[in-house]
Automatic annotation (TrEMBL):
UniProt record similarity statement: Belongs to the NPH3 family.
Keyword Aminoacyl-tRNA synthetase (UniProt): no
Organism annotation: Glycine soja
Any one Gene Ontology cellular component term annotated for this protein: endomembrane system
Biased composition range(s): Basic and acidic residues: 499-585, 593-603
InterPro entries associated with the record: BTB/POZ_dom (IPR000210), NPH3/RPT2-like (IPR043454), NPH3_dom (IPR027356), SKP1/BTB/POZ_sf (IPR011333)
Highest taxon, organism lineage: Eukaryota
Membrane topology: Peripheral membrane protein
Subcellular location(s) of the protein: Endomembrane system
GO biological process, one term: protein ubiquitination
Full protein name: BTB/POZ domain-containing protein isoform A
Pathway: Protein modification; protein ubiquitination
Amino acid sequence: MKFMKLGTRPDTFYSEQATRSLVSDIPSDLVIKIYDTTYLLHKSSLLPKCGLLRRLCSDSSDSENVPLELHDMPGGADAFEICAKFCYGVSINISAHNFVPALCAAKLLQMNESIEKGNFVSKLEAFFSSCILEGWKDSIAALQATNKLPEWSENLGITRKCIDLIIEKILTPPPQVKWSYTYTRPGYTRKQHHSVPKDWWTEDVSDLNIDLFRCILMAIRSTYVLPPQLIGEALHVYACKWLPSITKLKSSFNSATQAEESKAVSRKILETIVSMIPADRGSVSAGFLLRLLSISSPLGVSPVTKTELVKRASIQFEEATVSDLLYPSTSPLDQNFYDTELVLAVLESYLKFWKRISPGAVDKRHLIKSIRSVGKLIDSYLQVVARDDNMPVSKFVSLAETVPAIGRLEHDDLYQAINIYLKVHPDLSKADKKRLCGILECQKLTPEVRAHAVKNEFLPLRTVVQLLYFEQEKDSKETTSSKLQKSHDLLLGAKKRPATRDSDGKRSLVNKEEFKREEVTRRISHAESREKSQHKTKRSDGKLALDLEKKMVIRGDNEDIGSEKLRGAKEQRMSSSKSDLDAKKNIQRARSKKSEHGRERRR
């Protein structure tokens, strides 16, 4: 940080009670009062450089040594003393930290070039333009100093010039950043080969008060140069620096007066940060939003701010982790350790948002994946809060039941949460156990978990009986389905048998047989496709009826084919018998002719 040294004389100012003076052989003839401090000085040193004091002294007679009251001095007694030391030629150091009050006091005292060349104001303005506005940290420090004198700084143009310079440097591409900056993120070690991070400016800007910080950030957002994620990172850094943690906030309730003052400051910071969060999803993390929400109630923020936080957190709820939800309860009415009401409020808001966009969604796979991620998150959260001795069954069940059925593909995680709760709370009544286990669906448990649940001594008998009944019903369905599968395999084997011809090789019968087999195959294929299109939960007796129908179709077709064969064989036998009869008649005719011929020869 740069500074300007003025004057060469040693500092001989001293204090005596509430009076400030300097060692000198000349008696003081100028008395100046600033609040509770009185200065005993000399007109010969101050009047040639201070136009205000020259005018005030000229109005009074020389014989009167009336104190001059300068209670409106910007920067108070400290700023006036810097100006007085300059008049005496005492060595002083001007930096970005004391520049603002020194310039404001010099302006009030009218230490301009019109009074004397090379006066204090001109030197301060030259230092401001050539040093402070050229440096990154100097401009930040000078802008922060304007917080104590906002009106004076605004009127003199200090605030505007510092803000413009800071914005200009923030918008500078990182490869062109050559000045020093503060960056203390975990895992980052600055070396020469390291490139400048995109958020290099966030920590230094977080030193400013909330009003100046907001002014800079809103100006940056209006340029649309930096991405929303970078704006969100700056908000995150500022919140981590100035907002209290939930633990510190609970402990601060002990001192009421001090707590109210700090709560008012923190409340303003929180509400300002929420108002500056970019609308783009992902500009800040879900964990950051949940952290702000966790301290919103104890700080007493406005309902509008709290509603906005719940809405923003619910939109990104699927991105949260279990650690993002683990905040202690700050309500004096809650005996449980964890703030489950916060999680329930965000979950309900998420479900409203999910149901609103679900009907018109083009690709619902993402929505299903989202709600199942939230369901898994809630079940994992329940496994943690179940270990709380003071967690009531009603809150546990209410949070578990809020997740819709589509949000849980399996109930294994939910069973683990219930099992932990039963172990930690062994004295639960039968009614509470029944209510707790009533949210569990046996058919959504994996076989391994069901086997564990059947042997779980903490589960109520009703739940165990349901599990056993489901196991028995499942075994019977598996047995039936295996039998049906065997019948179906036999049908497929019959369908693949090769076609045969009759003994005489008649093609008409073969063509009929092939046609009928093709018809049977077509019906089976149609039945199979119709079976696949039906609901997965159709009862197995429907499948049995369908397979019996297939058998009847094939049996009927085989009977038709067999009857065709019998009619063909019968016709063959009739034709063969007819030919035998004709041969016999021909033999008899030949014999009769032969006998007639023998009789004629005898004659």
